[in-house]
Amino acid sequence: MPDEQRRRESQVPRQYGRSAEAEGYRKLYRTARWRRLRERQLSDAPLCQWCLESEIVTEATEVHHATPHRGSEELFWNGPFVSTCKPCHSSRGQREDLGQVTQTFGADGWPVA
Ligand SMILES: [Zn+2]
Questions:
Q1: 88 alpha carbon to ligand 1 midpoint, in Å?
Q2: Averaged pLDDT for residues 46-50
């Protein structure tokens, strides 16, 4: 196995329990801090950014973590965030959170690796 690959795999936390993790960050969503952050994100980017990729204009109502935080408070609070509509969030957002591959595109229009 190449060194680079081994290093990356060793950084993936595998040990913590899935349900404890989920319970941990569900609490974060109930905080006033998250609500403020969410409001701010939706006022900065009021349209669903995933619909916009298909040139569809939809009001965003959800804030998605572009990088799955997987219980990391650092990522949870600092993002990057994506404003999405509910249908996008529940389809594509779920897939991303489950670690399934979805192709994303940067602001410059090129795929993000
Ligand atoms: Zn959408």
A1: 4
A2: 97
Burial (0-12, 13-18, 19+ Cβ within 10 Å), 25: middle
Nearest partner of 53 among 108, 7, 3, judged by Cα: 108
Tell me the residue type at 88. Answer: C
Q: 42 is written with which tokens?
A: 């939706």
- The rounded Å distance from CA 36 to ligand 1 centre is 22
Task: Give the residue-averaged pLDDT of 79-89.
Answer: 95
pTM, rounded to two decimals: 0.65
Q: How far is the CA of 85 from the centre of ligand 1 (A)?
A: 4
**Domain segments of the chain: what residues?**
17-105
Region 72-82 average pLDDT: 93
pLDDT (average), residues 17-46: 87
36-to-32, 39, 76 alpha-carbon distances in Å: 6, 5, 13
Q: How far is the CA of 33 from the centre of ligand 1 (A)?
A: 25
What is the DSSP code (8-state) at residue 56? -
